[in-house]
Design goal:
147 residues; alpha+beta; 2 domains; four-stranded antiparallel beta sheet; 5 helices; 16% strand; elongated
Length: 147
Amino acid sequence: MVSGALRSVSISYSDLSIAFDFVSSAQPSEAEAYISVDTGEIYFVSAAAGINELPEDDEDTGNYISVPHKNELNLGRRLAFNFVDAELPGESDKVEKFFRRPGAYGKFKNLLASHGMLEKWYAFEASAVEEALREWCQESGVQLQEA
């Protein structure tokens, strides 16, 4: 699989966003998405879901760019901590405790809702994701088609 900017390919931000959400919906390496450098088509792979769209004969040709997981772009819990530090600094210790156990995001979102900050979090997260994906595209040779 291609990881650097060896060749350029063009895709829509919407398609990239769907692939990114698919990859990030599971633990790292449990769900994967690949962009064909030749066609711009996105292929999805998940053993747990029984999805393997990647053509067998082309898997190791180097003609694919692997879509990153949110953790690779520092968009996991680090992003949540950044938001809390900026918007609810008095809750930082509580949020750090949430993320030491399963169910952290549910507790985190409940806390935000109790402070009327849930919509602000969603906007913050969406902005950070878009910025990180655009930067990743520049580094990976992926050109985004503008609507």
